[in-house]
Amino acid sequence: MLFASSIALLLASTAVHTASAACPHMLSRRDARVLPQGHPAVDGSIFARDNAQGVQGSVDLNSLEKDLTKLFTTSQPFWPHDFDSYGPFFIRLAWHCNGSYRVSDGRGGCDGGRIRFAPELTWADNANLDKALKLLEPVKAKYGAALSWGDLISFTGTTAIKSMGGPVLGFCGGRKDDQNGDASLPLGPSAQQQAIHECPINGECTAPLGPTTIGLIYVNPAGHMGVPNPVGSVPDIRSTFKNMGMDDRETVALIGGGHAFGKTHGACKLGPGKCGSGPDKGIGRNAFTSGFEGQWTGTPTRWTNDYYVNLLKYNWTLFEGPGGNPQWKPAATDKLDADDAHVRMLTADVALLHDPVYLKLVKEYAADVKSLENDFARSWYKLVSRDVGPATRCQGSRVPPPQPFQNPLPAPPAKLANFDAVRADLAKILTGKAAIPGDGALGQYYGALFVELAWRSAATFRITDHFGGANGARIRLSPEKDYADNVGMDKVLEVLSAVKSKYPDGLSWADLIVLAGEVALEHAGSKPLHFIGGRVDAVDGENPAPRTYYSNATVAARDTMQVMGFTPAHYVALAARLRSPSQQARLGLGAKTYTSHVDAFSNDYFKILLQNHWVPTDVVSKTGAKQYKSDGYGEPRFVTDADLALIWDPEFRSFVEKFAQDGQLLQTVFVEGWSALMKADLVGHNDLAM
Ligand code: HEM
Known about the structure:
By secondary structure, the chain is mainly alpha-helical. It has helices spanning 6-10, 12-22, 61-73, 87-98, 129-143, 149-163, 191-196, 230-243, 248-258, 306-313, 347-350, 356-367, 369-385, 419-430, 447-458, 489-502, 509-523, 553-564, 568-574, 581-586, 604-611, 641-648, 650-661, 663-678; strands at 46-50, 56-60, 263-264, 294-295, 316-320, 326-330, 614-620, 626-630, 638-640.
């Protein structure tokens, strides 16, 4: 359950049940440690954490590395290693655990360690990775609850690269394990995934889904829809890695850096477990995983740039591999280097020669191993750390300096402004006692607009990958300030600018925006909101883009709730925030009629939703919301499909009914939800943390 509070208990029967069905992350409160912003978490060779899901204590990464290095070279009869090392196998495990991450909604990734469960473990691409997990069991048992599976898998892959001479930037620890694989259901195949975004032809899936083929981490190795045409594979590679948040440079460095190691497995056409005979039937040299067979370089347990060298050196020729699949080998006329007798490529490898940007990078890496090392180390770290969130969430002794993908923020000021004084200034605006730039243009009462600004700023937060949120105040910057939903927010910032300039030191925009929203809510009669300051202003970086791909408003509302990390009760309660229809109309946000009393925090909104009959109009707002008009009772009112989703969805509706009946209950749940959201991105204060 999200909040340990009396009201959460009051709502328990519905909230707990539905939270678990909707998102396993919300089953228990998982506090992050209280850590100062802008500092890597813990010093020494130890990382530690404390949460309700049983990850406690600390892990000595040096000792863990030693144990793993021994594990890599100790072959186990149930799944013997290739070339005297499990290193490449574990790199594949870490890659597949992390490669499910998608930027669209921050879902996927290794945080949660869900590759241990269905649906991920049953994906075709993850064949035989159950063996890799089994090999890790003794290490997991040794470190127990102090080491999550997510951290173990990612650290093992990173250590494997290092153990074979590859470049490593560092390690960001701090993943927490899920209890089951449910949070991966939206990745597909599942009814949830179908609702969020359909993939009518598997193999041609598009964003927000990550891969082109559900069940693959990346692209079809045999080529687009299995057609071994390298040219056709290029768009699949580009879109899949883009959905994962990778640019061309990172893509080429990752594929060739990864395939510096190991081999593909497809010893014969009979399939898994059936190749060979005798004691090594189906294992070792008779293993069948992908159904392709071969290695990319002559030295598959040693870091080199030979993948790129080989791509350029040989004339790759299509043939049918022993597993019956299309593969590529050097032409018969090619003069092979001594250890290259078994080098093979997949269609998706050869594709890198068939795109001008990829080809340029292949040439660069073939000629300059240092450039590859720099790019691979960075890209691997990004691949395996992306879903942990900002660098401030990374724990352990090997955390490198914050990277651009982590959207780092400046250090907080040594001394914060006197927030009581700021409150007093904000109150003057709300009571009409302050001179306002451009006064009159937005109407008289600014409270509803302050609340809207704070909400818009904070509601970018995603529990799925911990990006977004009010900290950084990126709502002032492009592209966020230009999003359709943020129309007019620049004008609200202008109103606040007089207060901002009064406190040149110690008052960030991010704090001011949140505080203004809270002062306005309290002024309108909300229970106290217990403001926490210390946010800073970003100079660059982006919050996650709006998710505009939903098929209807109900799906959008339910999915947004999950991505933000809310229970249904809190999600519904937050919809009652103050909003002034006339001001919103003036800002170009479309006519909506939530309440007749914009300066009072009330449950009017829910009453209006329930007590009217709504008929669709032809009006679609700038943000794509369909407008509905009340029919029958009193003065006509207008709402959108996003509002009506709260009564169309039966579970949401049950909370709408409760709140319409009980204004006090609404107050309590609202304050919990609002407070949690406003500090969701403050390390150490996170009630929404997974
Ligand atoms: C193995 C395809 C990207 C690392 C494999 C296998 C296939 C494949 C088919 C063979 C699995 C088996 O039969 O055992 C691809 C494709 C990619 C891609 C199509 C993208 C276009 C990557 C990336 C990495 C990586 C980004 C890591 C950074 C590995 C490693 C192995 C492997 C280390 C060897 C595993 C072993 O020796 O057991 N890949 N891969 N691959 N892949 Fe990739």
